[in-house]
User: Which sequence fits this backbone?
């Protein structure tokens, strides 16, 4: 693979859109069939880079000259922060868009709905693909924007093209961390998409005591809810952080249940709880949904304070 890095602005035409080009310098093929590309380039002697993830199973978006409405795919493409090269990428985009450099880190991940306008995603190894991307398509965060993404594995190139300069403010906003944002992670992934982009039911389908044995949902103030174990036997705990930095920790159990000792297996070993605190993924889903919505603990569950 040719790793000579291009100037990211080398394909911008005078007076045209800010279309950026990158060299693919690394590739990871994930077990689920998705591919993760490292895309790098140069701008005014700065080394830029980001990760681009593409799911498997997409189909051509245009059939007989018509858009196939069934070809849109949520969470199909993700831009991920690499390291300081991604922060330099954010600075460069601000500069090229005529905005003030925020001197800030790139958001850990930026998730898009996508449709393939040209090429067949099933033939990604041999074809040039052009995707239209939609971020925050329900505009829940005031970040709705559109971009084009070109992936050409045979040439080892990735290009990010503007759809329209009216989207520039939201593109810039979406590249930066949200102020006071929630975070969601699991044992296998530092950043898991939150609803509506990815539901808790989808996430907990991958709860596995052997190698993906916990999920942690953290509020902006540092309080969190965590689940540990497997789909059929798991425990849910909560930590409430106070303004002075102190905290209270609780284990969630069912109102009706035994107080006998029980254990739950995780990848790092066993945790000890009460039999009434042995839950399953469906309990965890209900608890996490309520927590994320700012609601009280659902009826039928009780909190047991514990010292940590």
Assistant:
């Amino acid at each position: 693979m040719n790793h000579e890095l291009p100037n990211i602005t080398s394909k911008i035409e005078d007076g045209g859109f800010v279309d950026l080009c990158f060299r693919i310098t690394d590739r990871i093929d994930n077990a689920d069939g998705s591919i993760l590309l490292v895309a790098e380039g140069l701008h005014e002697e700065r080394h830029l880079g980001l990760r681009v993830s593409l799911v498997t199973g997409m189909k051509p978006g245009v059939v007989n000259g018509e858009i196939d409405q069934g070809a849109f795919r949520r969470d199909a493409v993700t831009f991920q922060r690499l390291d300081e090269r991604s922060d330099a990428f954010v600075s460069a985009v601000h500069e090229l868009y005529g905005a003030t450099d925020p001197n800030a880190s790139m958001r850990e991940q930026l998730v898009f709905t996508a449709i393939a306008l040209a090429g067949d995603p099933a033939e990604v190894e041999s074809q040039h693909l052009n995707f239209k991307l939609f971020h925050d398509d329900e505009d829940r965060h005031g970040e709705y924007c559109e971009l084009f993404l070109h992936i050409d594995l045979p040439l080892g190139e990735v290009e990010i093209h503007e759809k329209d300069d009216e989207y520039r403010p939201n593109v810039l906003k979406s590249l930066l961390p949200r102020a006071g944002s929630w975070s969601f992670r699991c044992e296998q992934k530092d950043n898991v998409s939150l609803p509506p982009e990815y539901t808790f039911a989808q996430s907990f389908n991958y709860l596995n005591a052997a190698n993906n044995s916990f999920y942690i949902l953290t509020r902006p103030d540092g309080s969190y809810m965590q689940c540990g174990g497997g789909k059929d036997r798991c425990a849910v705990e909560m930590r409430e952080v106070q303004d002075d930095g102190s905290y209270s920790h609780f284990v969630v159990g069912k109102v009706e249940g035994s107080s006998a000792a029980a254990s739950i297996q995780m990848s790092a070993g066993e945790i000890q709880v009460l039999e009434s605190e042995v839950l399953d993924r469906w309990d965890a889903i209900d608890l996490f949904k309520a927590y994320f919505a700012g609601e009280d603990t659902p009826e039928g569950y009780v909190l047991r304070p514990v010292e940590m």
Observations:
- Residues 20-175 form one domain.
